[in-house]
User: What shape does this take?
Amino acid sequence: MTATDLTLNIAVNMGRLGRWAADGNTRRINMFLDETEQYLKELENSSPKEKFKPTLEFFKRKFQSLKNNKTVDDAWAEEALTWANILTHRAKLA
Assistant: This one.
């Protein structure tokens, strides 16, 4: 997969995670966090473009924070949805 494809896959997963968290449906969150982490590792190894690297580094820190935060609430959902939006718009830079 290309860096753009991987970025869009991550964005879709972040959207799913945000919607499930907002709805209180946490049953599948851990599974999709793990899948997203795999996409993130693939993305790092795909040699993303220099213009995208600052976004990627910032997202990696935020993603780890979300993954480590066991309190899945509205703020968690908002953060996930925000990153879904950011990554969707910046995928073309990857």
Q: What stands out?
A: The mean pLDDT is 96. Residues 3-23 form the longest helix (21 residues).
